[in-house]
Amino acid sequence: MKDSQLKLLPMTEVEFSAFWQSQIKEYAKQKVANKLWSEKESLQRATDEFTLLLPQGLETYNNFLYTIKLVAGSLCGYLWLTEVVDGDNPARPYLFINDFTILPAYQGQGLSEVALKLAMIQVKKLGYQQVGLHVFGKNTQAMHIYQKAGFKMTDITMIRRI
Question: Could you tell me if 99 and 115 are in contact, meaning their C-beta atoms sit under 8 angstroms apart?
Answer without folding.
Answer: no
